[in-house]
UniProtKB/TrEMBL annotation:
The gene is YTX2_92. InterPro entries: RT_dom. This is Transposon TX1 uncharacterized 149 kDa protein. Pfam families: RVT_1 (PF00078). PANTHER family: REVERSE TRANSCRIPTASES (PTHR19446).
Amino acid sequence: MVFWLFCWDVVKSEILGLFREFYLHGTFQRSLNSTFLVLIPKKEGAKDLSNFRPISLVGSVYKLLAKVLTNRLKLMMGEVISDSQQAFVQGRQILDVVLIASEAFDSRLEDNTSGLLLKMDI
């Protein structure tokens, strides 16, 4: 991101044009999503594949687009996703659902009440 901040005045029109194309057509050049896999040796003179560490290099324009979309979607996720959905929404935690289910189960056991507990996340 430092590159984009430092060079924004130079690349601004190109990047905004690319974002505009994506917004209007819903597609972008396939090469923007290309990933290059590079093997970095863990030690000098490495010859065996287990002595290499794979690193994926993703284009920074794609990362920038993903970051912008993520930040925009965060603002409206709470309105689009129902209140019962707990995972992957800022301010909500899936652990809350687990705790509620555990308490419901314990309550049934304490009261010696028969029945069925069902939690569906559709």
